[in-house]
């Protein structure tokens, strides 16, 4: 696992550099390029993001296995969190053209938790939903959790209008390097690490995950994450 983590670390910097240069080129040359060359750039961007997410998943999986993930909490601003998700989701959705909805009405604007695991959970669930949905909508919802044994908490929900997942296959889906069918292997690339990384991050956060498989259409993954109130709010309460 240490060798795998080292490999992911070595790959991470050049992949991020490729993404950065692609972003610059797409911005500077967008007006000068014809439709065909724009499509080439978009496909390059989508594949580079796909590679970047694979590298991140390998790193997250190997680091979590070594129990080396940092445990420091920080203030997370909702606006910044959504901004961190956007590039990966846009790249994954480039060829699909699905409607990506954000339901943030019940979300706290600022909360304290561990940023990296939360971003990893949301990106992996959303990219998975996009990958397995041929038409329709992928909805990402963040809201304060209702009654919970975890105390103050938020719900991260990703819902899609894809074919859904059979209830008997839910547990298997979270195993590392698992594809649920031979047809999935042919149609969809990937190492099968996404949901395994989600499971490890859920455990690292002391969170809970629920899978709603028996829906009229698609499936929904709900992660309930314990949070702390932001320091600024606590200071305001003390002084008041």
Q: Low-confidence runs (pLDDT<50, min 5 residues)? A: 181-188, 235-240
- Could you say which overall geometry the principal axes of the C-alpha atoms support? globular
Treating each run of at least 4 consecutive H or I residues as one helix, how many helices? 8
- Please indicate the percent range of residues in DSSP E strands (runs of 2 or more): 15-25%
Order of helices and strands: HHEHEEHEEHHHEEH
Number of strands: 7
Fraction of residues in H or I helices: 40-55%
Question: Any key phrases for this structure?
Answer:
alpha+beta; Heat Shock Protein 90; 240 residues; two-stranded antiparallel sheet; five-stranded mixed β-sheet; 2 domains; 8 helices; 17% strand; disordered C terminus
């Amino acid at each position: 696992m240490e060798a795998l983590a080292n490999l992911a670390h070595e790959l991470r910097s050049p992949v991020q550099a490729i993404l950065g240069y692609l972003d610059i080129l797409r911005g500077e040359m967008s007006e000068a390029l014809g439709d065909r060359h724009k499509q080439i750039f978009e496909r390059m961007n989508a594949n580079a993001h796909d590679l970047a997410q694979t590298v991140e998943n390998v790193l997250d999986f190997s680091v979590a296995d070594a129990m080396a993930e940092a445990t420091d909490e920080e203030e997370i601003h909702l606006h910044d969190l959504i901004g961190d998700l956007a590039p990966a989701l846009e790249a994954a959705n480039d060829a699909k053209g699905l409607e990506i909805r954000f339901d943030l009405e019940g979300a706290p604007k600022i909360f304290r938790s561990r940023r990296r695991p939360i971003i990893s959970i949301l990106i992996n669930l959303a990219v998975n939903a996009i990958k397995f949905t041929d038409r329709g909508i992928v909805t990402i919802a963040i809201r304060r959790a209702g009654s919970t044994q975890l105390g103050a908490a938020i719900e991260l929900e990703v819902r899609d209008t894809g074919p859904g997942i059979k209830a008997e296959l839910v547990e298997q889906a979270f195993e590392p390097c698992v594809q649920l069918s031979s047809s999935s292997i042919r149609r969809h690339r990937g190492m099968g690490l996404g949901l395994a990384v989600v499971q490890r991050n859920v455990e690292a956060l002391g969170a809970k995950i629920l899978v709603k498989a028996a829906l009229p259409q698609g499936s929904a993954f709900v992660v309930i994450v314990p949070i702390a109130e932001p320091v600024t709010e606590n200071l305001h309460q003390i002084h008041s």
